[in-house]
């Protein structure tokens, strides 16, 4: 696995991520396929939105269908019909979220399945082995992610354990051409801890670096402030992945601070709850004002999605038809990919600052008025 | 609208149905798109299975989104992105099923919406006008469908009212090139009533004739016995539609008795409950024996559906992922269309009897064994 820069503007980077299952332009948004499916989408349709990498979740997949079963069936790519690269998380974050169902020790985490209460254990070694069985192009180091805010002593002890786990994860990882493993920077919103974490990870050496422990409820300004000193401290020649982020505005700000990769359930989850992301901000399709609106969601909607009127989408959600979540998930993922392609193009063109100002101004304007829509200049289309 | 025969074998007919929105080979199975969507499918995907006509339900569509709204949005074809022909039912059957919520009189039916209890009324005239607003290629006459079994006097009174309503429906229908209206034969399982009903409808004159009041819980043998005298009494040069039918075996038997058109929620509903129709009968994908089965559902599965293993489908249903219903609905509709294409080809070839025996023998065999699957002759593929 390798990441190659194509262009830089300020901290922002446009590059190419080469993996065993293909090359992906960065910055890139990775749709989340928790249980071996991006919810309400065929893999074909995900691909058609322009997605390069999809995510799988170790915690969910180890419970069902089971990593050995996935391996016997030919690996996660074959099982879920996704021929492109796959990134799997380590299970650490999700196991931590189990609360009373899990017990942490220096060696790893013992937990009970949220499905049937059966006992399981994850360690840096077993998490890495599971991700190997799943055939992940990008394996994540097993880490601990404390809730914010937390006292520095808690953040420090947790970060240091994560770094010991990172070293064990690295030792357990089987290097193969086109495959790679990312270490995860921890340390909360503490600059000194973040920089120590980076130093520890770089000493171990990974194919890429993730920024963990953000997007856990803190304000955007705090996340950006943390990125301001974290991202530039990471190796210049490796991909950088901000875990669990985010809104279009979050991603734009993070790219401008040097991040290359994102994942988030937001566009797919929003799609299932009638929320559509557009160039003019988010629309709630359950709103009665869409009842008779013959327009597609956006003048930029790619065919074949622009065949559907807002009125029809409103109807589908009002009648609880499965096609509603199907179409709106599709729309949101297509919007996220369109946004990342454009941001990348403007990094390459060297005018990202201007484009960012344009994007933010458009988001702030709110939905297109009917007159404005009908009179829209063609050059606004992309 | 016109129906043209291409070939006949015994009572079975292969033909072409010409409509304002395209020509469809018959016999044909029409997927049900109750609320302006075939559940869990895009219209594109329905089209790709080979479906020619889809069905819309007047009762559901008049309540939501409303027929006038559909008309203002450009008609049902445009709203649901289905460019092919659409058949709408009259609302009669569904209003009758409301039980205590409806009140029947000679002029029509007053009923309360099952959604919000609001009062509504359907008459032959209003049902026909609603179907006109929806832009249905095939409008159904408004009729009453009594539950079976029923005393002859009840069947007779109901049939005679339906015939008076058929005459009023016809009078309300606006003839346009490519559009047509079907009368509905009633009379339960009583031969004399069925023949009187046909006589009355033919005297009125329709572009096609439907056989109603069957598939309401009676044994298959009784349905077939009714078809044996009903279908041959219908005009030879008009299409014949058996409403609400059915299983693959029901449809095969009905084609052999002279039926050209079918609709049923079975393949789509089954798809949402993990039931898959195959050349070897139905499979329940929730069954644990599919947990590690790497095969597609059937060796005849059309690409791209054969990319998915039974193990993956089992996993999707076990984890309640939306993709499970999506893929299995797709599979079932594709199987139904494949079956109808083959039945039609064998009518044209003149060997339907032999093919029917082959189909029934295959259904009875049950799922393919692994050895049998691996050694299957290529000529079995279609």
From TrEMBL, chains A, B:
<dbReference type="InterPro" id="IPR036511">
    <property type="entry name" value="TGT-like_sf"/>
</dbReference>
<keyword id="KW-0671">Queuosine biosynthesis</keyword>
<comment type="pathway">
    <text>tRNA modification; tRNA-queuosine biosynthesis.</text>
</comment>
<feature type="binding site">
    <location>
        <position position="213"/>
    </location>
    <ligand>
        <name>substrate</name>
    </ligand>
</feature>
<dbReference type="InterPro" id="IPR002616">
    <property type="entry name" value="tRNA_ribo_trans-like"/>
</dbReference>
<dbReference type="InterPro" id="IPR004803">
    <property type="entry name" value="TGT"/>
</dbReference>
<dbReference type="InterPro" id="IPR050076">
    <property type="entry name" value="ArchSynthase1/Queuine_TRR"/>
</dbReference>
<feature type="active site" description="Proton acceptor">
    <location>
        <position position="89"/>
    </location>
</feature>
<dbReference type="GO" id="GO:0005829">
    <property type="term" value="C:cytosol"/>
</dbReference>
<keyword id="KW-0819">tRNA processing</keyword>
<dbReference type="GO" id="GO:0008616">
    <property type="term" value="P:tRNA queuosine(34) biosynthetic process"/>
</dbReference>
<feature type="binding site">
    <location>
        <position position="143"/>
    </location>
    <ligand>
        <name>substrate</name>
    </ligand>
</feature>
<keyword id="KW-0808">Transferase</keyword>
<comment type="subunit">
    <text>Homodimer. Within each dimer, one monomer is responsible for RNA recognition and catalysis, while the other monomer binds to the replacement base PreQ1.</text>
</comment>
<dbReference type="GO" id="GO:0008479">
    <property type="term" value="F:tRNA-guanosine(34) queuine transglycosylase activity"/>
</dbReference>
<comment type="function">
    <text>Catalyzes the base-exchange of a guanine (G) residue with the queuine precursor 7-aminomethyl-7-deazaguanine (PreQ1) at position 34 (anticodon wobble position) in tRNAs with GU(N) anticodons (tRNA-Asp, -Asn, -His and -Tyr). Catalysis occurs through a double-displacement mechanism. The nucleophile active site attacks the C1' of nucleotide 34 to detach the guanine base from the RNA, forming a covalent enzyme-RNA intermediate. The proton acceptor active site deprotonates the incoming PreQ1, allowing a nucleophilic attack on the C1' of the ribose to form the product.</text>
</comment>
<dbReference type="Pfam" id="PF01702">
    <property type="entry name" value="TGT"/>
</dbReference>
<comment type="similarity">
    <text>Belongs to the queuine tRNA-ribosyltransferase family.</text>
</comment>
<keyword id="KW-0328">Glycosyltransferase</keyword>
<feature type="binding site">
    <location>
        <position position="186"/>
    </location>
    <ligand>
        <name>substrate</name>
    </ligand>
</feature>
<feature type="binding site">
    <location>
        <begin position="89"/>
        <end position="93"/>
    </location>
    <ligand>
        <name>substrate</name>
    </ligand>
</feature>
<feature type="active site" description="Nucleophile">
    <location>
        <position position="263"/>
    </location>
</feature>
<protein>
    <recommendedName>
        <fullName>Queuine tRNA-ribosyltransferase</fullName>
        <ecNumber>2.4.2.29</ecNumber>
    </recommendedName>
</protein>
<feature type="region of interest" description="RNA binding">
    <location>
        <begin position="244"/>
        <end position="250"/>
    </location>
</feature>
<feature type="domain" description="tRNA-guanine(15) transglycosylase-like">
    <location>
        <begin position="11"/>
        <end position="358"/>
    </location>
</feature>
């Amino acid at each position: 696995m390798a990441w190659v820069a194509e262009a830089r503007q300020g901290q922002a980077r446009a590059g190419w991520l080469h993996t065993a299952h293909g090359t992906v332009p960065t910055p890139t948004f990775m749709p989340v396929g928790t249980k071996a499916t991006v919810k309400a989408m065929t893999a074909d349709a995900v691909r058609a939105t322009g997605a390069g990498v999809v995510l799988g979740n170790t915690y969910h997949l180890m419970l069902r269908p089971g990593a050995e079963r996935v391996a016997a069936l030919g690996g996660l790519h074959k099982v879920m019909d996704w021929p492109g690269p796959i990134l799997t998380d380590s299970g650490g974050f999700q196991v931590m979220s189990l609360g009373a169902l899990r017990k942490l020790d220096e060696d790893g985490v013992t937990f009970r399945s949220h499905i049937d209460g059966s006992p399981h254990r994850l360690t840096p070694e077993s998490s890495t082995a599971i991700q190997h069985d799943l055939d992940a192009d990008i394996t994540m180091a097993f880490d601990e992610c404390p809730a914010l805010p937390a006292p520095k002593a808690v953040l420090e002890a947790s970060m240091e354990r994560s770094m010991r786990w990172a070293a064990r994860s690295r030792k357990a990882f089987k290097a193969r051409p086109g495959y790679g493993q990312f270490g995860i920077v921890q340390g909360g919103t503490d600059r000194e801890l973040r920089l120590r974490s980076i130093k520890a990870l770089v000493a171990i050496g990974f194919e890429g670096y993730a920024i963990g422990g953000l997007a856990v409820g803190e304000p955007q300004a705090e996340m950006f402030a943390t990125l301001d000193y974290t991202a530039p401290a990471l190796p210049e020649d490796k991909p950088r992945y901000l875990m669990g982020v985010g809104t279009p505005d979050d991603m734009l700000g993070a790219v401008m601070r040097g991040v290359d990769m994102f994942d988030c359930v937001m566009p797919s989850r929003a799609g299932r709850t009638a929320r559509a992301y557009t160039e003019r901000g988010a629309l709630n399709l359950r709103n009665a004002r869409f009842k008779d609106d013959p327009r597609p969601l956006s003048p930029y909607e790619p065919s074949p999605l622009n065949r559907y009127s807002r009125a029809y989408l409103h109807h589908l959600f009002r009648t609880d038809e499965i096609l509603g979540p199907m179409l709106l998930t599709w729309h949101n993922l297509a919007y996220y990919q369109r946004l990342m392609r454009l941001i990348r193009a403007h990094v390459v063109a060297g005018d990202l600052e201007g484009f960012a100002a344009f994007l933010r101004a458009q988001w702030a304007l709110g939905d297109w008025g009917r007159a404005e829509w009908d009179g829209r200049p063609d050059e606004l289309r992309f």
